Amino acid sequence: MSYEGAELAALVDNDPAKLRQAKEVFGAPVTYPSLEDLLSSSTQVDGVVVATPSAYHYRLGRTVLEAGVHLMVEKPMVFRAHEAWSLVRLAEERGLHLQVGYTYQFTKAARLLRDTLASAAIGDLLQVSAVYASMVESYYRGRPEDYRSVFGFPVTGPDPRTYSDPAIAGGGHGQTQLTHPIGMVLWATGQRAEQVMAYMGKADLVIDLVDAIAWRSCDGAIGTLGGSGTIRPGEPEQQEIRYYCTKGFALQDLSRATVEVHRANGRVAIAGPDEGDPTYPSPAPVRGFADLIAGRGPNLAPGDLGARGVEFLEAAYLSAERGTPVQVQELPRA
Ligand SMILES: NC(=O)c1ccc[n+]([C@@H]2O[C@H](COP(=O)([O-])OP(=O)(O)OC[C@H]3O[C@@H](n4cnc5c(N)ncnc54)[C@H](O)[C@@H]3O)[C@@H](O)[C@H]2O)c1
Question: So what's the pLDDT on residue 120?
């Protein structure tokens, strides 16, 4: 996979065998065993993509920004709201781009949805409902190999602990998957969560396999958001969001990359992928990051969106643990 708008300058991985395999697949001119080795070397980089297991995003992301380099960090951005906002502030202070690895924002449907909601064509947001059910349970069980035939794993596939060990993944379905619809809802509506109440079910796992979250935004809109990691290979994933507003509603299907906007006057606008476009545009965020650095495009998943998603999820996990609603403003500040 290549992109004419960017040049792969180097690869970093702290596992020598994986680094060798990645070099063979992606053909990087030079490799390093650590981020610090790269940043102190003579290799010039405009941006770094941090795509390690999630627990290391904060330390590595901070190291990138402190070195004066633009940062793209995979989702979930980090686990703690105060860490997320500190990265946002650091990027602002240094005049650097900070992009989060959200993907659905790069579809035509998502852009129509956001433009419609911002234009007030269907009025003010009242309520939003999202379900995100996906094929991830074997990841949560530490058995990524179950999905080799489905995903193909161009390099090695994830480490068994990446999505199953709470210390590394930060949690289960919430951190690994619900971060996507949360990021989409907050991006499309521009909202920020004020209060969150969550229930989480683990079945026989040590992390959440199913989640049910209710929330209220700072602007007074309310929402529900839930999902399950139990979809099996061959079964259809269900990833839908419904936005109910004062003058209409919008139905977004993330797995098909479509949106239908219904106005109160009966008019319906529909958007979906162009022929040949993937429904899940997995290369788009990194290409978008290269375009952003080169001044050729906008930041479709900026750091403040990532941080709003992190505070939502931190409040949800805390709420599930306590059994009471959590105010985002109550989250630890350090
Ligand atoms: N945006 C998306 O749709 C999407 C999809 C899949 C994964 N992700 C995210 O990408 C991240 C990585 O997931 P993965 O499945 O590739 O995991 P992985 O287990 O394959 O880890 C990726 C690589 O990071 C390396 N690594 C670990 N610690 C490191 C360190 N300190 N320095 C350098 N390299 C290090 C590992 O050796 C491994 O090769 C996770 O945060 C995940 O949530 C995002």
Answer: 86
The whole-model pTM stands at: 0.97
What is the span of the domain harbouring residue 25? 11-100
The mean per-residue pLDDT over the stretch 40-44 comes to 98
Asked if 253 and 213 sit in the same domain, the reply is yes
Q: How many other CB atoms are there within 10 angstroms of residue 308's CB atom?
A: 25
Instruction: For ligand 1, say whether the CB of 127 is within 6 Å of any of its atoms.
Output: no
48, pLDDT greater than 80? yes
49-66 per-position pLDDT tens digit:
999 999 999 999 999 999
> Residue 68 and residue 299: Cα distance in Å, rounded?
18
Q: How far, in Å, is the centroid of ligand 1 from the Cα of 153? A: 12
Cα–ligand 1 centroid distance for 157 (angstroms) = 9
Q: Establish if 2 belongs to a structural domain.
A: no
Name the nearest CA neighbour of 54 among 17, 98, 8, 100: 100
Q: Report CA(328)–ligand 1 centroid distance (Å).
A: 28
For residue 297 and ligand 1, the question of a CB distance below 6 A is answered with no
Domain boundary among 100, 119, 151: 100
Q: Are 321 and 237 within one domain?
A: yes
Tens digits of residue pLDDT in 311-323? 999 999 999 999 9
In short, whether 172's Cβ falls inside 6 Å of ligand 1 is no
Strands 210-217 and 193-201: antiparallel
